């Protein structure tokens, strides 16, 4: 994408004229100028040089009385779905840009381009060629906050082989990593963490962090290659304000350290005597794994960094605040090391859940897991929008059926037809799962006059019943769920979430339950595998504990039990994998000739 087209060229222009202009503006070029009547072409050594030529010359430099127009040279066959939009107002919010682009079609990607200009530049790919053409016609030259947008095609290398897809709906499809709130303030790094660093700072230090006319915050973003949002308007009158830092993990940590140093200096200058701890915000979804079993992970971080770390209680969560406050006390150096370790654990938790979610989406055809809202506001870490996600226990009534097993609110029930209204392709067979819950949680699952379990059954498209207690002192009760894979997913998802909401598991615990599924006795060996190989692979893949008890007596249907224990995703993955094994066994059984049947005759050659 380094070949340039120069338009509006005077008939008097020569190659020497262009050589002079490029030399004057210190723009390198890697080949001779090809001058035609009314236009010219030239190659630049890299994209940076090409972007500089466009930014510096296009519409700004005259040659023989004509303003030059400079843009990427794009062969006709590659003028497809990709556009470059330049001269975007530097303070424009991403949400505004998103909604503007979405007017013309489905945007598959929108990436910021690093430039030396004050205005922002983005590369946009639409789902279809006609959508890109419409966007170019409407946006090129249009005014936005006194800035005239400049839109041009950029080479679409996939155009020749793929052809445009016309199936994209208007709006935005699933895209890559979340972006910062404003495209113009600091270039985004190429490899950005999906989870930003969120921290709380005392309100009295916000002015020092921003600096005179924003000079200090601009320096921080430039030095650390990060995008920093200070949410000054949130929680008016509050003693602390949140800051969101988007960058690589290293960039986030460097920005955090710099902010801590600025606060310490300001405290000395203003004779502020109280200790200023580092306060990191983390979504409640990930805090349990940060703490670790019996607090081991947190204790290790404290020992390794020489800090004291406390985490706000679960009870502090509100409908609009799903984040826990992780307070770190120690020197700036120690706090900085602790921040790196804390965020490393949080990112690992997020990546683990995303990997499980993506794998799960392949195991249940037609199930749109992105609609579940398992993470904050579509994608984790989208700055202030995270505060729109209710925590566990914040839901009430029927609306709570749209939540994730971790408590994040997702419009799953609104965005997906129920299992009964839209059966999956091929009408998958119904499955029976026995899910064991704490006996004390039965009332919460049933609800007042059975309303909750009825609503859950209707929502999931499954039959859900609670088996009688096996004895007076039984600590667990069995929930019998009957339905196809999608219904199982939705019903179990909601039960896991309900138990977390109702605090049947502590703030430091993940919700882990045991599920039983029955398999034909002749297939139990296939689940176990030779020398336990298959069951061990299952456990490694899913992170669930999978046990096929030995010496079981098959029931009247010649079936035995497989026990699965773990958190929601682990249980779901294990169930799906076992069902795959059973389906394979059934297919093999169908292809076998019945006992006593004559062997098939060999084919004649």
From TrEMBL:
Residues 2-75, 81-156 form the RRM domain. InterPro entries: KH_dom (IPR004087), KH_dom_type_1 (IPR004088), KH_dom_type_1_sf (IPR036612), Nucleotide-bd_a/b_plait_sf (IPR012677), RBD_domain_sf (IPR035979), RRM_dom (IPR000504). It comes from Echeneis naucrates. This is RRM domain-containing protein. PANTHER family: KH DOMAIN CONTAINING RNA BINDING PROTEIN (PTHR10288). Its main location: cytoplasm. Belongs to the RRM IMP/VICKZ family. Pfam families: KH_1, RRM_1. SUPFAM superfamilies: Eukaryotic type KH-domain (KH-domain type I) (SSF54791), RNA-binding domain, RBD (SSF54928). GO terms for cellular component: cytoplasm; nucleus.
